[in-house]
Fold Sulfotransferase.
Amino acid sequence: EVDNTNSPKDEIHELLQTLEQQTNWDGSPLFKYNGYWFPQHFFRPILSFQKHFKAKDSDIILASSPKSGTTWLKALAFSIVNRNVYPINQNPLLNCNPHALIPSLERHLYSLQEHPNLQHIPNPRIFSTHMPFSTFLPDSIRDSECKTIYICRSPMDMFTSGLHFLLENKTQNDTVLPLELNEAFDMFCHGIHPYGPFWDHILGYWNAHLKNPEKVLFLKYEDLKEDITFYIKKIAEFMGCPFSLEEEKQGLIEQIAKLCSFENLKNLEVNKTGNIRGVLKNSSFFRKGEVGDWTNYLTPDMAERIKKIMESKFEGSGLMF
Ligand code: A3P
């Protein structure tokens, strides 16, 4: 039901007045809400999502910070779940960007409508979100049997990837130039970036995973790069659709790994030319796909600074990058 007592626009206007504000790397405003920084235009969808989304027990939620491997995880989850629906050579990924197949809750579904009807989506429904775990996810995601798969990545690569993404999608109409690398990096180290601080985002899902590993799977981009076969099996088991011996013998896991590989997806026509809702270039989601590209952009001092932040924030958590 839509709350008509206050128009959402007024509610949000009033809320924003009370929040600390900063300027994002691209010059747009960021607001701090319950400890995390969000771009202004996501407030309405974020609040609608929190208020209206009802998770089903069979739902699968793919969660991440931006630039941590969301696109890859979407491709993998889609292909694993639908492996008996489409033969590999007819997989919709061959013609659609992964973000068009698995919608983002706050960036897509709840940004199009206050209260979208998601009932018609066949089970298991797969959605993505960049929202932090703590207090932000609707209660039904935490309280239902639905499963969450979180992917994170070395913050240095996440930062590097984010800057390129911003530059790649900058339109000619953008009046404000992005910040210099040094300034953007300094803000990142203070946790001021969309959905940041990154350490709280990662720790929130890490602790949820430790508390209930059957409900929250915690993945690292670097681990998937190291041994994708192992993680495809792990994701399938976690989602409740493990590969049979017969499927393994047929080489289905390797076929899915190849279909979802960076090289394959990047070179598909749809990902070279298309865009997402006219705003983001499909190609901008496939840049280098490497571990450690940060060494080409960050100085050793910058790396040392991030490492120290991680050491202090992750101390005692069991998390390492
Ligand atoms: P780089 O910018 O370092 O290349 P997200 O999907 O969360 O936006 O993250 C984007 C990052 O994941 C980009 O990193 C992108 O190249 C990489 N990526 C996209 N698809 C991938 C795939 N299939 N395999 C490995 N990396 C992928």
